[in-house]
Amino acid sequence: EADIYQTPRYLVIGTGKKITLECSQTMGHDKMYWYQQDPGMELHLIHYSYGVNSTEKGDLSSESTVSRIRTEHFPLTLESARPSHTSQYLCASSDRQGYGEKLFFGSGTQLSVL
Amino acid sequence: SQQGEEDPQALSIQEGENATMNCSYKTSINNLQWYRQNSGRGLVHLILIRSNEREKHSGRLRVTLDTSKKSSSLLITASRAADTASYFCATFYGNNRLAFGKGNQVVVIP
Questions:
Q1: Which residues of B fall below an 8 Å CB-CB distance to A?
Q2: pLDDT of residue A53
Q3: Chain A residue with Cα closest to B50
Q4: Beta bridge partners of residue A94, listed in sequence order
Q5: Is residue A20 exposed (0-12), middle (13-18) or buried (19+ Cβ within 10 Å)?
Q6: What is the pLDDT of residues A59-104, one digit of tens each?
Q7: Collapsing DSSP states into helix, strand and coil, what is residue B59?
């Protein structure tokens, strides 16, 4: 059982609202990731972090932002949600072990923007 | 950029049968991983095979890797209803990031 938690599990909001998706892990992992996934589709990396105060954009352009002030916490923020942001957002973490590492995933946040 | 692409995309089998799915990738790799995702949940790591390995087993799972063809296969033997899920292969690429393929949806009918 992975010790990585995402809240909320489901979120339905109106267009223009600001939201923050929470992700926390208790494994002391340096690396954390946010993936976006539409139903039945592949995962797209939107943000990642190698440690405190480190954040990078992923491959899929995203209007969201992230922060990494504490090792265990990697929240994702949308300043003004739009229907195009409707998707599942998956947070993951891993040890800094080079190319042999595996990712631990949270259960995801299913976001619906009306 | 997508590094892996699974084939077939969807598979429906009877309980007790074997399920095989394939994955191809584009660049040279150090290892390839397989993950399982139950509907609406996060992914769970199943198995990792290194580039110098050709076959690896874990319980009812068997993974093969052919680096000359840039492909991998995942075999689930004696499938169970609980194996119903989507299965993704993943490889590392630039800056140590993990990229996932499109996934295979497997339905095991009791």
A1: 1-2, 30-31, 33, 35, 40-45, 48, 50, 86, 88, 90, 92, 95-103, 105
A2: 95
A3: A100
A4: A31
A5: middle
A6: 887 889 999 999 999 999 999 999 999 999 999 999 866 556 889 9
A7: coil
What local confidence, expressed as pLDDT, does residue A69 receive? 97
List, as one string, the DSSP characters of A25-75: ESS--SEEEEEEE-TTS-EEEEEEEEETTEEEE-SS--S-EE--SBTTB--
Tens-digit pLDDT profile for residues B16-25: 999 999 999 8
* Residue whose C-alpha is closest to residue A32's, from A100, A97, A103: A103
* Residue of A31, A23, A86 lying closest to A58 (CA atoms): A31
Say how far residue A33 (Cα) sits from the centre of its chain: 6
